[in-house]
From TrEMBL:
Highest rank taxon of the organism: Eukaryota
UniProt biased composition (Polar residues): 179-204
Entry similarity comment: Belongs to the cytochrome b5 family. MAPR subfamily.
Gene3D superfamilies associated with the record: Cytochrome b5-like heme/steroid binding domain (3.10.120.10)
PANTHER family for the chain: MEMBRANE STEROID-BINDING PROTEIN 2 (PTHR10281:SF45), MEMBRANE-ASSOCIATED PROGESTERONE RECEPTOR COMPONENT-RELATED (PTHR10281)
Protein name: Cytochrome b5 heme-binding domain-containing protein
Species of provenance: Dioscorea zingiberensis
């Protein structure tokens, strides 16, 4: 106890000698300075980070595994264009459908390639076109460089995304009654043409008779 008292007396003398203040005044000023420092730090400190936005939260959530949809028509594929967040984001190349949900920032609503989603955009990708008329799977008439570009896109999709289906090829339906009528009309035209040829053919039997009569007279 004597040692503690001696140390305190030594500290008091040191404070008075170096600061000119009494020990009580010195510790009061020190407490006020500390409080002032923390008050100023609270006013000018870095602001708290804003809460993450809804879209960022959605992107952070794990994506569900791709679901196979099988063979669908182009019209059925349109519902997977990203407007319904409960449905996967799909896109087709050369009739093959891929799940591009992991690249929603590119192919989803508001993305730079959003107009390709829910469609077979083979022609548009080959030509790097954003025109409505090129948003089709018809690649007829494309040049070699365009076909090569399309092949590069296909390789990229095959390596990055999961194939989940194919586009059903539509075959035009022909009305059987119309087809039968067309066949009957064609057959009638063929019969009429043959009949016409037989009517205009010359009767050679009378000519042969006249030739034989002339030869007999000369003899």
């Amino acid at each position: 106890m004597a040692a503690v008292t001696e140390a305190w007396e030594t500290l008091k003398h040191a404070i008075e000698a170096y600061t000119g203040l009494s020990a009580a005044t010195f510790f009061t000023v020190l407490a006020l300075a500390t409080a002032f420092y923390y008050a100023v730090s609270g006013l000018f400190g870095a602001p708290a980070a804003p809460p993450p936005r809804k879209r960022e939260l959605e992107e952070m959530e794990p994506l569900p595994p791709p679901v196979q949809i099988g063979e669908v028509t182009e019209e059925e594929l349109r519902v997977y264009d990203g407007t319904d967040p409960k449905k996967p984001l799909l896109m087709a190349i050369k009739g093959q459908i891929y799940d591009v949900s992991q690249s929603r920032m590119f192919y989803g609503p508001g993305g730079p390639y959003a107009l390709f989603a829910g469609k077979d955009a083979s022609r548009a990708l080959a030509k790097m076109s954003f025109e409505e008329k090129d948003l089709t799977g018809d690649i007829s008439g494309l040049g070699p460089f365009e076909l090569e570009a399309l092949q590069d896109w296909e390789y990229k999709f095959m390596s990055k995304y999961v194939k989940v289906g194919t586009i059903k090829k539509t075959i035009p339906v022909v009305d059987e009654s119309t087809a039968d009528a067309s066949e009957s009309q064609a057959a009638a035209q063929t019969t009429e043409a043959n009949s016409s040829h037989s009517n205009v053919a010359p009767d050679t039997s009378e000519q042969h008779k006249e030739v034989d009569a002339e030869e007999s007279t000369k003899e």
